[in-house]
Structures are given as structure tokens and as C-alpha cells.
Amino acid sequence: MQQKQMNRLSELLLKYNHNQENEPLAKHLQEDDLKKILEVEKIEGNQNWDETFDWIEKYLSHSPNTANLDFSNRMWSKATLPSILAEIVTATNHSDASTYESAPVATIMEKYMIGEMLRLVGYLDGEGQMTTGSSNANMLAMMCARNLFLEGVKASGLYGQKKLKAFVNEDAHYSLDKAMNILGLGLDNLIKIPSDKDGRMDIALLEKSIQETIENGDIVFFVTATSGTTVRGAFDSIKQILNLRDKYNFWLHVDGAWGGPAFLSKSLRLKFLDHLEDTDSFTFDFHKMPGIALICNMLLINKRRGIFKSTCSAGTTNYIFHGGTKEVLPKNLGEFSLQCGRRIDSLKLFLDWKFFGAKGISDKIENYLELAKYAEKIILDSSNLELVVKRESFNLCFRFITPDTIDSNEFNQNLRNNLLNKSIFMVGTGVVDKQLIIRYVITNPDTTKKDIDLFFKKFECEGLKMLQKLL
């Protein structure tokens, strides 16, 4: 029976994969309409395989086709084939990466990949781990810094302690707000520094805020440099923040969820991530521009080997971890992670790395930047479109130009929604200086200049139709 259903699934997925790039973007439906089609209220427990496969087909049919070149809604698109194969293998094998006993191959592969990334980034005597994503990694880095700056906080908590203050770009990811909340540090103690005209954290204002914090008797413990802000794609100046770290002694973390993998390219590292090797921690997602299947993240720590274990280990664990308790870097990866069960993400990273190599991945990222430059020129040459802010890296923030009598924010939001509802294109939005913008990012390796031409042609055509109806 199991073999029959596996064969059935294989046929279904092969057909889906074969047609995926040519299939429509999505059969976009409103939630109530989709619920009726899915029939989620059907009685459970009947063990009907036909019903199971009916839901699988509905899932594939009504989910956005992320391999379609008209999908540009998120910072990822279709997954690489080696990573897809890895996901199938790990789901079939069904283990977790907490202990060497339960996942010996995954453990060795994860440790190998951590070692490779530490070497390439230039972190000495450091350590790393694969996490559930950069949101989790940002919090874990902050947690390590918190425990380092507040002696005894792990055992006694925050009671009676001085206030810790963290500093981020005003456009930093909201996961840093969540980290302050989860760690008990308080949202009011996350200081958001205004950005300069290029979207980077204003260094003069950062230092001024740091000085005010010290004068008030609070502790400056954590500064995040964002390498690729979510909307604008701006890279905070690592070198300038390092100068302040040497002066004021804080932990400098780099959130490279989006732009971090650019460190694999020599030219892009020099341009965007210069002096990365001197920072205290660095996180980056392989499931975004590199294209590995979701989720694939790594957090690296510099010059503080053993800090994960000292920060995360707690409670009685002898029922699961059978190694030596005095090991600084235990063989069981779960001993220094926040959670017990750990999803195996190392196989997809390892297979992708061995298949494409650092050069294959960096070539892909460099090509995305060249395509972004090409898209920028189209916008600048158009009489119907405008860049709201200049391009900083991979992101393009633009909008359709409207007459003064029409609300530009409302028009562009409706334009974006129309493109989605008609299954023409799925693209993201954002807000820059209270202006709603269309955020265009390229993460599909099959994208060509012709595809970019077609996107803007579709966008302008729909915009002109809407404008004509309003005038």
C-alpha cells in the first residue's frame, strides 16, 4: 500500500514539476471562496487515499506558483533541485538533528558547512549553528550578548539589573523588536536610529544616542548592522559601526538575512560587507538569493567558541544527550540550540554547496545585481514610472506616476492588487517616507532581461488602463 501511494505521489509531483514554469502564476481566490473548494470541514479519520490526493492536488493547484517568472512577491522564488531532493530524503528518513546518534550524517554535514562558512567569513575561533531562520538567529545573537553583558542573568533573570539598550536602523527587520520582547528587555529599549538619504543607519545619530544612553547610566550592549534592508536593500556601514564598537564596547551583530550571502562574491563583499570578519556575529539566509529550499539559515559567532552552549544549555538533558558534559563543542548539536527537536536542514545546504560551489552561488547573486541595474534603467527611461528612492543594491522601489488629483498610494496599492487578482503578476509593496512603493526584487535564476521587459510592460499597461478609467 505504501509503495503504491509513493508511486502515485511521484507521478503527481513529476507532472507538477514538469509543467511548473509554464503554469499560471496562481488561481487567486478570496479566503471564503477557497475554503469552499478545499472542503476543510470534511470528517476526519476515514483513511481515504483518494481524498488525501485530492487535497494534495488542490494544494498545488491553488498555491502561488513560485517557479513562475511572474512571482516576485517575496525574497525567494523556486528552490534549487539539489535542495528539493534533500527535502524529500529527510522527510522520508524522518529524523532530527539534535543528537549524533539520531542523525550522524546530518551532524557531520552541518559541522562541515559551519566550518566552511566560518572560514569564508573570516571568523577565528568561532562557532555556528543552523537555525529556524534569521528572526530566530537575531534573537539568539542578542541573547548571547545579553548574557555576556549581564553577569548572572541566566540564573537570576533581569531583576535588579541595569537597563540594556540595543540600537538598529529604523528600517531594520521587525524580528529585532520581537527579540527584545521575548528576551524581557522591553521594546522601549530598542533604539531605532534614523537612516540617511541612502537608507543606511546615520552614524552620527547612532553615536549621539549611544552617548545619551551612557550618560543616563544604561548599558549599550547590542548594535545591529542590517545588510540589505527589507524594502530599500540598504547596507549599513559595518566599518563605521566597528569604529564605534571599539570606542564604546558593544556587540556588533550583522543581520544579513537578505544581502548577507553576497559575502561569497569577492567584489560584492568589498562593496557591501567590507570588514565583516571583524564583527561579533553574522546571520544569513541561503533560502533567499541562493535559492535553497525554505528554511536554510546560519548564525555564526566570532571569537567566542562555546558561547552557544553557555547561553542555551539548561535543565536535565541526560535522557537525550549522552556525550561528555564538559565539552565546549559537543558532538550533539542540540546541546547548544534553543529548541530540543531540530529539523535537518544541513543535507540541502550540503548538497547544494557541493553541486554549485561558492562560485556558482556567487555568480547567481552577481547576476541578480546586474539585472537590478537593468530594471532600474527601464524605470528611469519610462514616462509612466518613477524611482521613489535610488537603488542601493538588489531592491527597486518604484511606483506608477499619477496626477496630483489622484492619491498615489491608493492607486499603486490597487494596481498591485489588480495584477494579483488577475493572476498577471505577484509583486511586493513597502513604505518609504510615507509613500507606498512597489518593491521589485529578482530571485529566480531563470530571469532574463526579456522577462524584466515583460514585467514592466504588463505593469505599465495595467496602470494606464486604471488611470484611463479615473480620468
Your description of this structure?
The protein has 471 residues and is an alpha/beta fold. It has 3 domains: 2-65; 89-353, Type I PLP-dependent aspartate aminotransferase-like (Major domain) (Aspartate Aminotransferase, domain 2), CATH 3.40.640.10; 357-470, Aspartate Aminotransferase, domain 1 (Alpha-Beta Complex). It is built from 15 helices and 12 strands. Helix 1 packs parallel to helix 3. It is globular and about 65 Å long. The termini are far apart.
- The CATH architecture category of the largest domain equals 3-Layer(aba) Sandwich
CATH homologous superfamily of the largest domain - what is it?
Answer: Type I PLP-dependent aspartate aminotransferase-like (Major domain)
Q: In angstroms, what separates the terminal alpha carbons?
A: 63 Å
Question: What is the count of distinct domains?
Answer: 3
Pattern of helices and strands = HHHEHHEHHEHEHEHEHEEHHEEHEEH
- Structural class category: alpha/beta
Model regions low in confidence, pLDDT < 50 over at least 5 residues: none
Let me know the largest β-sheet: 7 strands, mixed
- CATH fold label of the largest domain: Aspartate Aminotransferase, domain 2
- Number of E-state strands: 12
Q: Give the fraction of residues assigned to helices.
A: 40-55%
Percent of residues in beta strands? 5-15%
Fold blueprint:
Elements: H1 2-19, H2 31-38, H3 49-62, E1 71-72, H4 81-93, H5 104-121, E2 127-131, H6 134-149, H7 153-156, E3 164-169, H8 175-182, E4 190-193, H9 203-215, E5 219-226, H10 238-248, E6 251-256, H11 266-272, E7 281-285, E8 297-301, H12 307-312, H13 346-381, E9 385-387, E10 396-400, H14 408-421, E11 426-432, E12 435-440, H15 449-470
Parallel strand pairs: 1-11, 3-4, 3-5, 5-6, 6-7
Antiparallel strand pairs: 2-8, 7-8, 9-10, 10-12, 11-12
Helix pairs in contact: 1-3, 4-13, 5-13, 6-8, 13-15, 14-15
